[in-house]
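Memo to structure team: turn this sequence into structure tokens by end of day. - J.P.
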Amino acid sequence: MSGNLRNLVLWLAIFVAFVFMAKKLTEKDRSIKLDLSAVVELGRGGLAGPGEANRTIAMIEDRGGTLRGAFVEPYPDPRGGDARYRTFQSEYIAVGTMPEYVVNWALKNNIPYKANQSSQLLSSVFFSFLFPILLIVVIWIFLMRQFQAGSNKAMSFGRSRAKLVTEGQVKVSFDDVAGIDEVKEELNEIIQFLKDPQKFSRLGGKIPKGALLHGPPGTGKTLLARAVAGEASVPFFSISGSDFVEMFVGVGASRVRDLFEQGKKAKPCLIYIDEIDAVGRHRFAGIGGGHDEREQTLNQLLVELDGFAPNEGVIVMASTNRPDVLDPALLRPGRFDRQIRVDLPDMVGREKILRVHTREIKLGEGVSLQQIARGTPGFSGADLANLANEAALLAARRDKNAVGMEDMEEAKDRVLMGPERRSLAMSEKELKNTAYHEAGHALVSKLTPDAEEKVHKVTIIPRGRTLGSTAILPDEDQHSQSRRQLFNALLYLMGGRAAEECKFNTSTTGAANDLHRATDLAHSMVCEFGMSERLGPRTFGSPSAQVFLGRDMSRDRDYSEETASLIDTEVHELLSSAYHKALQVLRDNMDALERISQALLERETLDGDELDVLIRGEELPPFRRSGRGETRAPSATGTAPGKEERGKQDRPAAGAVLRPPTTQPS
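Reply from structure team:
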């Protein structure tokens, strides 16, 4: 029986008892107490007041000295009927001939008589004295239990909320994690240490006290923790960093103490703290206000990880995608001995991840996971899982028996840019401007000498927040870029605005995002990458720091006003040079720009091979439109749009090689 149902039944029983006792007391109060002589006269038909008819006793019961009965009043009952009854009670000393006298009196006056020699003293005492006391005791016990339950809840407020995972509860293993073999090796070593500590300690080695997993979102940090829980044969405690933080100061520290006390009782064990940045941020730096609860919780966590008292047999795992905001005391050796970066997978890793996520998906003939992996640089494991699931949903929506390559390609577009918005009403002028804008991006990228990124698709179909997009991908995964590559990126970004200028001799707001990204890139080239010939190989300024991270609000600029003016000049020259060069490329190839724009207006989407055909001045194969939109044979490249800006998060600044689709405000 649940607690709520049990409380309801108890309160209902108390209510019934109150009603029963009230009824008994009310009945007792309505009885008329008479002397024995008055009862005798009543039985003889006497004891009537002036103007009243005689009242007659209807029945009488003798309970060993107590007479209880009822007499009939010959007045109409207001509720209906000819007469109404009144009860009475009388007492006498049942000794000698008194009982016999009462019997003879009743028989003489034809009064129904019932003898009940059992005394009513016990029942009278029970209902008059014991029952109320018993009822009060029951209510008191019930209330005390409620108070104790509330007290227990208050006392458990500082208890840890960690979930204990035992062997067999988690079905995830290292076989379900792909693309990050080095990380799996590091974590597998910790598991082996727990299973066979003698193997490592025979040479004097000690088990690591902690391992911190950090990297971009969606790379599989939590999945790795679940795999560790599935592989480990020791108790595994899992908790989120936000579970420590409460509005009351001291609660988080109490939960940390309780968590490690549970861990010490179950050692050897593993404790996993997800999103540790919720509690492990930099402590108060003197500006912007502190957070006493979080800081006390962090202090207690530091003590438990490596404090005065030894903490052996408890290994702490944690994960975050913001290691830069963590307190330095939390990251030092002795607390988190191993800091393991879980980065975005390379092409081989993406193929392995796709094979894991397509185990339960029926793939059709011609589906090449290697080809999809090659066309998805910058995708995280979560992105690839979403891609595989979207492809399965698309195939099921079309009543297919298996997932085909076209489903995978369209799912890739949906993951990158969202579903198509064919119902969006666009004027002919706006549609034409979008076509020339995207054609400018594609043509400049195609005609840029020594360009290492290739155009894979250009479309004017609105998707998500974009009216059109042009996607380019590198031929292989890149982790650094040269100055020439970055300048080529500036040319590509300026291609849309330059095409508007060449065709319409004006500019629109469609290039706002392009200009913003181009300005950021040019500023990084000058101030971060040291790629300015005039300023030389040095950096300028420090990365901005947010006060809510517990850092300084501002820092002194490490360059003069003259240098700041020179930086602005260099950034401006880079952007102007890229813009004018893009203008020159488009003016020298206006025929190709016209052909690509007209093909986009007709077909809505072009791939890299079709762009090459149009640039050479050749005719495209006949195009026919189905109910869903365009229909064409798959291109030889089989590639798809590149990763958007979220793929660049947490990557090295010089490694942001991917060109996300250009966007225009809708």
